[in-house]
Sequence to fold (185 residues):
Amino acid sequence: MSGFLGHFKTVTKHRFIVFKLCAKCGLVWRGLVHDLSKFSPTEFWEGVRYFDGTRSPITKCREQNGYSRAWLHHKGRNKHHWEYWFDAENDVQMNIPYKYAIESICDRIAASKTYKGKNFSTKYVYDYWIKTPKDTLNQNMLNFFEKVFADLRDYGEKYVLNKKYLKATYQQFVENAPTKSTGSY
Fold:
């Protein structure tokens, strides 16, 4: 029972933080619908089973099984994950549309706040970003996220979660960047 309640509280807290962050960026709807698939049976029950309160149950499930059904379900239904925009069959890594890219940033900040609690720092978000495998992310998006997470670390949340900053940075690294065979949407 503690896994059920703990996982439910964690998902709900995370979604609420994403909502607040997305609202700051002018993306209220993205915040409202963020991660609703986590309440589907595939994702929710795996989350309950592997819940420990210190990290994503997906990570624990992967360590024990080598894969996570919840993750496979989640990334295929949530456009804020860059893996959604990767066509493995054709090896095409597309640019992520602006609203989903911003939701992705809010998601990473919220996940860090959820799991780190009072030990949260913007440096942690950047450090987690550095450790994240990025082989399915195209160069434009890689540059964009790298800039945003470095600025988050150096200048803070208020600086980064500003519509003008986000739009200008996205335009610089994604919309105005040369595209090769990475595809775009």
